[in-house]
Design goal:
This protein is α/β, with parallel strands linked by helices and 382 residues long. The chain has 2 domains: 191 residues, no CATH class; 165 residues, Rossmann fold (3-Layer(aba) Sandwich), CATH 3.40.50. The chain is built from 13 helices and 13 strands. A 6-stranded parallel beta sheet has the order 9-8-7-10-11-12, sandwiched between helices. Strand 7, helix 6 and strand 8 form a beta-alpha-beta unit. The longest helix is centred in the N-terminal third of the chain and has 18 residues. The protein is globular and about 60 Å long. The two termini are 12 Å apart.
Length: 382
Amino acid sequence: MIAPPWYPVPPHGYGGTELVVGLLAAELRDQGHDVELIAAEGSALATWTAAPRGWDAALGGEELHLRDLTYASRVLDLLDGLRPFDLVHDHSGAAVLFGLAAQSPAPLVHTVHGLIAEPLRTFLESLGPHRVAVVAISEAQRRAAVAFPWAATVHNAVDVAALRVAEPERDPPYLLSLARVCLAKGQHLAIEAAHRAGRRLVLAGKVEASAEGAEYYERRIVPHLDGDRVVHLHNVAGEEKTRLLAGASALLAPLQWDEPFGLYMAEAMASGTPVIAFPRGAAPELVDPGETGFLVSDVEAMAAAIPLADRIDPGRCAENARKRFNPRRMAADYLRVYEWAIARGSSAGVAVTAAPSPLGWPPPGNGRQRDLPLERSGAAAG
């Protein structure tokens, strides 16, 4: 299993893909599978490390592609010298995937964790279905490349064991926006909705590291921060994040982009905290209206839904979400993909996506799931 080179696995704070990779690797190991994980330095679950700390500074900058290529070179050299594998599961960038698709040591599965714009879609199409079984994380993500021969859709999991279920009465009550602060996440609209509803709002998340992100924060967010009705916590993790999720009366997600999943929404619902979201991206797949939250069309409707969220039972909300977004379910779905890919593919390049999807996607209804130089890490392989 190959993680991206940017953050440790599991992450110490920010790092959604790394969180998912860590949960999957740990669950597979718990079930007795031999999982060797290649990841960044500082990864507690890694068998091998192939990127030093600090490479996340390249994200969004000119050095990104060179870091990606360097990581790919190290990963491919490492795989070339290791024992045979039954399967390789890649979660990293295009450079690693390109190298593996050209000469993979075993049947290859790749999960797309980001938004599919035209350049990525064209790149995936150029690889050909005989080289890699590509997995989506939502049906919404798949719709950006509807003609692409997807192998399956597997919803992400969250660390349900690390989350607490909220008490029915939150005191003091507050609303939560837990996401990277940028225009795409729409925190300015969350502020407006909270103001209309007369509720306190906690914004939690780092400001996007870009000129656009800094401008958005200074112009649209800072003027509303008063330390009381609107509060910003620049980054949260661990116990603080768990407490914030469990204590909020609702999580607001006024999405301004087609988010391919939204781990923070699944985390909130698994904590018994309803999600009120705009119906963009994967939100309609994640939120069960009236059970785990509400889908609303605009700020006015979001404000009107806030008191309705108080009527949702935290226990039922958490139970629903934990059934759908737990690591065991995710691992079971991926094992079906692995078995399917192994049966139909090989390092010789036999077609792995010619047969029907192993999960029978797309399903009916709303698209929900059916039920440094290379070095050896001190972690066990599993």
